[in-house]
TrEMBL record:
Residues annotated as transmembrane: 32-51
InterPro entries reported for this sequence: Glyco_trans_31
Involved pathway(s): Protein modification; protein glycosylation
Uppermost EC category: transferase
EC numbers on record: 2.4.1.-
The name this protein goes by in its record: Hexosyltransferase
């Protein structure tokens, strides 16, 4: 996280505090008198509704009350001085208005009332329906009907990483008798060559691109776009994995693990489990999260972002539940929040030692036992893979 962003986050915090106490500002006397009268009318009306229609349950009455409250909140919002809204949010709200009015394909199934959507989206920039696909390869799952989909977030310009994966663990479309599909997920960046990317996609049909800005701080958006794509473009797959582009992935061992009899087909999320991880509050850390974004001192149990595997019923549930979870920049911990909110938790893999992060050096025997390893460079991946695939015993 750069200094620039840190600054704006502080600003954001102050703005939020401001916005929390709008009553400190004295409204003109007439204004409050009028509001009081309006409130009284609404109250009388709601009470009237509740008693006149005996078929209405208490919960229904409550929901009506909420709607009025929302209406009232909205009319109040209309008087909120513009400086109470952070510029970032303001820009975002404006964009949302456009999106909602245009209703592009990606937003079609979003039929909720305008007011709720605006209130929600002001704080929910990670919700994938805020964005639309630029490249979506909607047909690849129908043609292939995979057992497992490997979703690899990667920067648009990082062709080297994509090519290395296409030549190594992303190469085989059938592994241990099961169909696999490897796709790359990109946002937009200012420098990338649109034509080149289109050519690359024409050649491989494996790029998914959404129209958010592809930055480190936006990785949670990218993960939610992955979930949205899986839920809407590939619902028939059995499992999926989010796996980083700098990984060694032993796809054989992964499929063997997923074919084990005891592995759940629903509500299953596994990988390297992180328990009781403290939230990093040091501003110069890559993982810094300001308290305004995430107030708790610890994250719920989550699976490390380098590579986590899940049953493919979960993506739709994650997208749905993400509407009510404030986003922050740590994508794997955010998924931890989502699964917790669903009343579920990550499961330890059958053999936890198969999900490894850093290793000191390449070891042919070791690589034949694991599922993941972080290796860092495309060049290393190709070299290690070439050796790993040589005939002969691994150990
Ligand atoms: C309306 O605003 C109040 C605070 O001003 C808040 O407590 C309440 O939840 C809001 N109601 C709705 C329905 O958004
Ligand atoms: C994240 O993406 C949004 C949408 O493209 C963009 O407006 C915003 O600046 C990005 N945020 C960061 C921190 O890169």
């Amino acid at each position: 996280m750069g200094d620039q962003n840190t600054g704006s986050d502080e600003e954001l915090g102050q703005t939020r505090q401001f916005a929390k106490h709008p009553h400190q500002q004295k409204p003109p006397a007439f204004h409050s008198w009028f509001q009081g009268l309006l409130m009284l009318c609404l109250l009388v009306f709601v009470v009237f509704l509740a008693f006149s229609d005996s078929t209405l349950s208490w919960s229904e009455t409550l929901s009506i009350q909420k709607q009025y409250q929302r209406f009232f909140n909205k009319s109040k919002q209309g008087h909120t001085p513009a400086y109470l809204i952070h510029p970032k949010h303001r820009a975002f709200l404006n964009k949302m208005k456009e999106n909602t009015l245009q209703t592009p394909e990606g937003l079609q199934h979003n039929t909720e009332p305008h007011t709720t959507q605006q209130q929600r989206l002001q704080y929910h920039e990670a919700y994938p329906h805020n964005y639309r696909f630029v490249m979506e390869n909607a047909e690849v799952c129908k043609v292939n009907s995979p057992f497992l989909v490997l979703m690899v977030p990667v920067a648009p310009s990082n062709v080297a990483a994509r090519d290395a994966i296409r030549a190594t663990w992303g190469k085989d479309q059938v592994v241990q008798g099961k169909k696999l599909l490897t796709l790359f997920v990109l946002g937009l960046d200012k420098t990338h060559d649109v034509e080149k990317l289109q050519q690359e996609n024409q050649q491989h049909n494996d790029l998914i691109q959404s129209n958010f800005l592809d930055t480190y701080l936006n990785l949670t958006i990218k993960t939610m776009v992955i979930m949205d794509w899986l839920a809407t473009r590939c619902p028939a797959a059995a499992y999926a994995m989010k796996v980083d582009s700098d990984m060694f992935l032993n796809v054989d061992n992964l499929v063997i693990m997923l074919k084990k009899p005891g592995i759940p087909q629903k509500n299953y999320l596994t990988g390297m489990l992180m328990w009781n991880r403290p939230v990093v509050r040091s501003k110069n850390s890559k993982w810094y999260v300001p308290e305004e974004m995430y107030p708790e001192p610890q994250y719920p149990t989550y699976t490390l972002g380098m590579g986590y595997v899940f049953s493919n019923d979960l993506p739709a549930k994650f997208v749905d539940v993400s509407k009510s979870i404030k986003p922050f920049n740590i994508e794997d911990a955010y998924i931890g929040m989502c699964i917790k909110k669903l009343g579920l938790s990550p499961t330890s893999p059958p053999d936890p030692s198969q999900f490894k992060a850093y290793n000191s050096k390449y070891d042919r025997c070791e690589f034949s036992k694991v599922i993941t390893y972080i290796i860092g460079s495309a060049e290393n991946l190709k070299n290690f893979w070439a050796d790993y695939k040589k005939p002969g015993p691994h150990c």
